[in-house]
Amino acid sequence: MNKSIAGSINSTVLVVASGKGGTGTSVVSALLGLAVAGEGRQVLLVDGTESYGALHHMLGVTPRHPLAALRGDLADVEDLLTPVDERLSLFPGGADENSELTPLSQTERQLLFRRVRELYSHYDLVVVDAGSRLEAVLTACDGGVTRLLLVVPDERIAMAASHGLLKAVDSRNPGLPVDILANRCDDEEGAAVHSHLANAAERFLQRSVGYAGSIPSDQCLQGGMGAGMTIQDAAAGSPAAIAARSAGLHMLSERIMPAGRSVASGQTLLVRHA
Predict the structure, then answer these.
(1) Which of 204, 127, 124 is closest to 163 using CA atoms?
(2) In which order are the strands placed within the sheet that holds 82-83?
(3) How many CA atoms lie within 13 A of 233 on its CB side?
(4) Is the pLDDT of residue 261 over 50?
(5) Rounded mean pLDDT of 89-111?
(6) How far apart are the C-alpha atoms of 141 and 156, rounded to whole Å?
(7) Domains identified in the chain, total number
(8) What does the pLDDT read at residue 115?
């Protein structure tokens, strides 16, 4: 295994998901990973989607192998790690659309994900972008997950779908801590989204859900990425990046995430903030 992640430490494993597609789980996952890595933590981003995923495009890296390469021992689990920078690594998704490898079945994904979890203990934070497909989210939530972060915009359909996803996860992983992150919302809208879902969870599931905050709609970030910039460059100083950092550090407090390794002298934070 890479010397930079040698040694076992206690990890926070965060699954980022939504009940509806197009809500921004990949962007949120990348922003959280960049922000926490910028604070001196060792971070692993895992693309838990069934396809090759979008994280490598956002981060400007090219994975050597997809998750499907673990089938038949075509590669070791460490071989799939793709460095983004000194403190951030990416583990790619299921199958490259240009690969000759046969797409993974759900059973194969579940089995191979057990091998991926062997890496988790070597990082301060693991962020799994599970997307919105139920089976992908349930697979990501199995085994050693610290909490689930539901990314929800201020849309009725998205809120209803996220409640349905919460119900499914809660029946399989009762007691798993869950936080709501309101995406593309201002503070007032975000508080209303959380209130709606928290009331529904209390009434119908007899459980509580936390609030990780809100991330505003950010035309600068969207425009930069649309123009071909990496999310690292497009996010620098952006309102969305600042909000994601605040939400991430609040949620991943010292009470649930151990102290990270010290930042090297002169190291620049990946996500600049005020």
Answers:
(1) 204
(2) 82-83, 88-91, 43-47, 125-131, 12-17, 147-152, 178-183, 210-215
(3) 11
(4) no
(5) 72
(6) 25
(7) 1
(8) 83
87 occurs within a structural domain: yes
- Residue 263, classed as helix, strand or coil, is coil
Q: With respect to residue 266, please indicate whether it lies within any of the assigned structural domains.
A: no
State CA 167 to chain mean position distance. Answer: 20
* DSSP strand pairing (178-183 vs 147-152): parallel
Q: Are 146 and 12 in contact (CB under 8 A)?
A: yes
- 153 near 181, Cβ under 8 Å? no
Decide if 120 is inside a domain: yes
For residue 37, the enclosing domain spans 16-251
Encode pLDDT of 227-248 as tens digits.
Answer: 999 999 999 889 999 998 888 7
The mean pLDDT of 21-46, rounded to a whole number, is: 93
* CATH code of the domain containing 228: 3.40.50.300
Q: Is the pLDDT of residue 270 over 90?
A: no
In this prediction, residue 143 carries a pLDDT of 77
- Give the angle subtended at the CA of 82 by the CAs of 76 and 87, to the nearest 5°: 120
Token pair listed for 230 = 């990496």
Residue 3 confidence (pLDDT) above 50: no
pTM of the model: 0.85
Residue 261 lies in a domain: no
